[in-house]
Amino acid sequence: MIASLSTPLLLGAFTLAGLIVVISSIKATGLADVIADRTRIGEALAGGIVLGAATSLSGIVVSVSVAAQGDASFAFSNAVGGIAAQTFFLALADMLHRRANLEHSAAEPANLFQAVMLIVLLSIPLAATAAPDYAIWGISPASVILFLAYLGGTKLAAQVSETPMWKPVETRETRHDEPEDEEERNRSPRGPILVFVGLVVVMGLSGWVISQAGREFVTRFDLSSSLVGALLTAVVTSLPELVTTLTAVRRGALQLAIGGIIGGNTFDTLFLVFSDGAYREGSLYHAVSMPDLYWLATGLMMTGVLLGGLILRQKDGPARIGIESLLLVAIYASAVVLQVLA
Question: Is 221 within a domain?
Answer without folding.
Answer: yes
